[in-house]
Write a structure and sequence with these properties.
The complex is a heterodimer of chains A (154) and B (704).
Chain A lengths: L1 E7 L2 E7 L5 H8 L19 E3 L2 E3 L13 E3 L12 H8 L9 H14 L5 H5 L10 H17 L1
Parallel strand pairs in A: 1-5
Antiparallel strand pairs in A: 1-2, 3-4, 3-5
Chain B lengths: L19 E3 L5 E5 L20 E2 L6 E6 L5 E4 L9 H13 L6 E2 L18 H28 L7 E3 L2 E3 L5 E3 H9 L28 H5 L15 E6 L7 E6 L1 H5 L3 E7 L2 E6 L2 H10 L1 E5 L8 H11 L11 E9 L2 E2 L7 E6 L4 E5 L4 H12 L6 E5 L13 H13 L3 E4 L2 H7 L2 E2 L2 E10 L2 E14 L9 E2 L16 E11 L11 H18 L4 H8 L3 H13 L10 E10 L2 E10 L7 E10 L6 H20 L5 E2 L2 E2 L18 E6 L14 H16 L5 E2 L4
Parallel strand pairs in B: 1-3, 5-6, 10-20, 15-32, 18-19, 23-25, 28-31
Antiparallel strand pairs in B: 1-2, 2-4, 4-5, 7-8, 8-9, 10-13, 11-14, 12-13, 15-22, 16-21, 17-18, 17-20, 22-23, 24-25, 26-27, 27-28, 29-30
The chains are: A alpha+beta (154), B alpha+beta (704).
């Protein structure tokens, strides 16, 4: 058991945890941050997708020790107060969600994509691995394009 | 109980719904569910009759309360698993009350003792459409009457708007300010009839989910997100083979690990209760268990498929002088694989129990759990929680049963989560099946159509591997979808000790998919275009109309490069009709991509067209997945796949780049929609693949 400090959604936090404890369970079971979801535990469904220093990660396979002194952003930290991130707004505008369980991860994956590729092609969007068992993929694609357009026009 | 109100003048051609008052300080009305009201001719007086109060319980009722804060609350005896039922019901309520949608709350009702609390069979909207609107219309009449009496004006001069009553002189009163006085009104001064469809401004308008903002901000809570005091993370070690037994357990090392609270043997394996899921998984992996092989160990896919094939009843003799189009089709087992794995919170005490989980059958769950715990059903409280998908998976409630047993044994509240491996390898699945279909052609038409099938049934104990023929089971085609002369079918099956469950669209997902492939092959044998042939042979007007819609909107027959193709298929069920046109790029036949899907549906009144489009989109991806890639192998009594890494449900790169849904205008009663699209989507994908590659699709998924 060691102590790890990092910045979570803009706030400094410190947790006592084993070094190999996946960030997902640190967030959910120790810090009560439940936006990132468990869907497989092995980094393939990507329902837990969040950001580490702005880049996409799957917290279910990232040990907490790797997050020390870095910035973790979950879906709860994506909006700016009451102002939604353009990706969240596009998700609302296109009414993407069905059951909603994968959507925090989908949104975080899309936000990371737009951060590194402001105008993603269909091939870029095809590379998103996050599973949506409800099959909302076409709306996800449309929402990403809408968010990209909104960002470039604002 | 005498009903206080029935809708309007009795009209025998329309269903009517009774509404009751509930004794409360705020306006609270209730409508029975689960059965229709008596025929209108025998219905009690519409108005002027005595009022009757229902006290204390909302069993069998849909209950609407207007709070002092102007919120309209309806506790819904259904579960929300993504299908959008809470939004659809909120729209019905908002419509009849002229309330703002944002003022309507639809919490999920706890498990009840009686009545219809079943979510399934694509029945929710059709079963709620009448009662929900009548309920809200009744509440509106009382609110209007309360305002009229307060202001001393005739009630018929008032209107309702934005959760307020509005007078001609401009005075307004919020529903919240009227609810106490409205609660005392027994006989309203204005009719309580729901609006005619021509005046609908909410129903039929594409509407965003009422929980969409909660979802995109991460605020939406699923069972695993609930903070129930003291409920400790819990996982279960399970055998490597299906229904394998426990021979020996050494939990010394596991118990010695930090953060471990209890190790409990349950029928399905060994549970570990710990401080976090990380600690629980680590302790689970430290258990030393010897497992006995499960009863299915002698069998793998090859044997199961051979036995299934042998269990298909023989086709009957062909009419003299006919030619035949014949096909055999095999479908693999398929996982439901909802994104949220089965999760349940249980707090079992000596004299009572309280549980939280997502379930389509909360009443059954409560009775079953009460029986297992030796408690009266009234001592077991089941809170129904929104689910992260279901597709039929939450018809059963294995995790809740296990959580109850673990909580009882560990003497503490637990939060049990199945791992993804648990759900894939020990969860339920769509049964594998085998089909033999023959169309007999004579004189340029189909004169007889036979569909023989065998599927796996679930046996509880030891494997009964002898083939058995069931009675004649009604086939979807018996309803006469096509004018195919003599239509017949029979089913056989084999019983295996394997966990099975209804999967979105149930038997139709395989039966009708196989039939739609044969329909295309019949058209080819008759040298007819698949769309033209269907138009000429489909019996129903609605299904012909949806087919015509996708053919036009999807530009059926447009020129396409080699290796690509279009396919169509149709389906009728749940009082609804659907068609799908798929375009596929199979220039690499082993790695096809569906590039475009166009669907059209006639579901009667579509309460929320945006939600219906979402349901059709989901069934499109189900069709792509089950036809092209997603299935489960059985290897010597175990499920080979373990997660989305090898259970190949579609990802973004497999989904259509373009998707269109066309909702045909219809004034009829709402039909079912949630499962409707699966067979049409699956059939269209298979037919597109066949036309693009020249191959005959026979075994699903094709890439397996």
């Amino acid at each position: 058991m060691s102590s790890y400090s990092f910045v979570l959604n803009g706030e400094p936090v410190t947790v006592e945890a084993p070094a190999d404890m996946p960030l997902l369970w640190v967030l959910r079971d120790l810090l009560g941050v439940t936006g990132p979801k468990y869907g497989c535990g092995v980094g393939v469904c990507r329902a837990c997708t969040s950001h580490l220093d702005g880049a996409e990660i799957q917290p279910c396979v990232v040990p907490v020790a790797d997050c020390a002194d870095r910035a973790v952003t979950t879906i709860e930290g994506l909006a700016d107060g009451d102002t939604l991130h353009p990706v969240q707004q596009a998700w609302l505008d296109r009414d993407v969600a069905q059951c909603g369980f994968c959507q925090p991860g989908q949104i975080m994956a899309a936000a990371a994509l737009l951060a590194r590729t402001p105008h993603p092609t269909d091939a870029d969007i095809d590379r998103i691995e996050n599973v949506c068992r409800c099959g909302t993929y076409t709306r996800i694609r449309e929402a990403i394009k809408r968010a990209a357009a909104d960002r470039s026009s604002s | 109980m005498d009903p206080t109100e029935t809708p309007g003048t009795p009209r025998p051609s329309r269903r009517s719904f009774m509404v009751y008052s509930v004794a409360a300080a705020t306006l609270t009305v209730a409508a029975p569910l689960g059965c229709d009201a008596p025929p209108a001719s025998g219905a009690p007086e519409t108005s002027g009759g005595g009022d009757l109060l229902v006290t204390g319980t909302d069993e069998e009722m849909l209950v609407l309360e207007v709070t002092a804060a102007s919120e309209v609350v309806v506790r819904l005896p259904r579960v929300e698993v993504g299908q959008g039922i809470t939004t659809a019901v909120a729209m019905m309520i908002a419509e009849e009350l002229d309330a703002r949608l944002t003022d309507v709350r639809i919490p999920l009702a706890d498990a009840r003792r009686t009545g219809n609390q079943y979510t399934g069979g694509s029945s929710s909207v059709s079963s709620l459409y009448g009662p929900a609107r009548q309920l809200a219309a009744t509440a509106r009449a009382r609110l209007v009457t309360a305002a009229a009496r307060r202001w001393g004006v005739p009630a018929h001069t008032l209107r309702t708007w934005n959760t307020r009553v509005v007078a001609r002189d401009g005075r307004t009163a919020t529903f919240g300010s009227l609810t106490a006085s409205a609660a005392r009104i027994r006989t309203p001064d204005v009719p309580s009839r729901p609006k005619p469809a021509s005046r609908h401004r909410v129903i039929g308008k594409p509407t965003t989910r009422i929980d969409a903002r909660d979802i995109v901000t991460g605020a939406a809570k699923y069972t695993g997100d609930l903070a129930v005091a003291g409920a400790k993370p819990t996982v279960v070690a399970r055998p490597p083979t299906l229904r394998g037994g426990l021979v020996s357990l050494d939990d010394t090392a596991a118990r010695a690990l930090p953060g471990v609270h209890a190790v409990v043997r349950i029928p399905g394996g060994v549970a570990v209760v710990a401080d976090t899921f990380h600690h629980a998984f680590q302790a689970r992996d430290a258990l030393r268990i010897t497992w006995a092989p499960g009863p299915l160990v002698p069998l793998s896919d090859k044997e199961i498929r051979a036995r299934l094939r042998a269990a298909v009843p023989r086709l009957g003799s062909a009419p003299r002088g006919s030619t035949r189009v014949e096909g055999e089709f095999a479908f693999a087992f398929v996982s439901h694989a909802p994104m949220e794995v089965l999760t349940a919170v249980a707090d079992v005490r000596s004299d009572r129990a309280e549980l939280w989980f997502s379930t389509q059958t909360p009443m059954d769950a409560r009775d079953t759990i009460a029986g297992l715990l030796g408690l009266r059903a009234s001592a077991v409280r089941v809170h129904v929680v929104r689910g992260g998908g279901s597709f039929g998976r939450r018809l059963t409630f294995e995790a809740a049963v296990e959580a109850a047993l673990i909580s009882k044994a560990a003497r503490r509240p637990v939060k049990l989560m199945w791992s993804r491996n648990d759900d894939t390898r020990h969860g339920r699945m769509r049964p594998a099946g085998h089909h033999r279909i023959r169309a007999d052609l004579a004189g340029g038409r189909v004169v007889a159509f036979q569909h023989m099938t065998a599927s796996v049934g679930e046996s509880a104990d030891e494997p009964g591997l002898t083939a058995q023929t069931g009675g004649v089971r009604p086939l979807p085609s018996d309803s006469g979808l096509y004018d195919f002369g003599r239509v017949s079918g029979d089913s056989g099956g084999i019983e295996l000790p394997i966990p099975l469950g209804a999967w979105r669209s149930v038997d139709s997902g395989t039966m009708r998919t196989a039939e739609e492939i044969v329909v295309d092959e019949v058209a080819a044998a008759l040298r007819q275009d698949p769309v033209a042939f269907r138009r000429a042979t489909l019996r129903g007007k609605a299904v012909r109309a949806v087919l015509a819609k996708v053919a036009a909107a999807g530009h059926w027959g447009r020129a396409l490069p080699a290796g690509t193709g279009q396919g169509v298929a149709v389906h009728e069920e749940y009082g609804s009709a659907v068609a799908c046109l798929a375009e596929i790029d199979a220039s690499d036949p082993d790695d096809p991509r569906v590039t475009k899907m166009v669907m059209a549906a006639d579901v009667g009144t579509a309460v929320n067209p945006r939600g219906l489009e979402a349901q059709l989109m989901g069934t499109a991806v189900d069709g792509i997945s089950t036809v092209l890639r997603a299935g489960l192998h059985i290897d010597r009594g175990a499920v080979r796949e373990g997660s989305f890494a090898d259970f190949h449900y579609a990802r973004q790169r497999h989904a259509p780049l373009e998707f269109e849904a066309h909702i045909l205008p219809s004034g009829g009663e709402p039909g079912g929609a949630g499962e409707l699209g699966v067979p049409a989507a699956a059939g269209a994908v298979a037919n597109a693949y066949a036309r693009a590659t020249g191959r005959k699709p026979r075994s699903f998924p094709l890439d397996f």
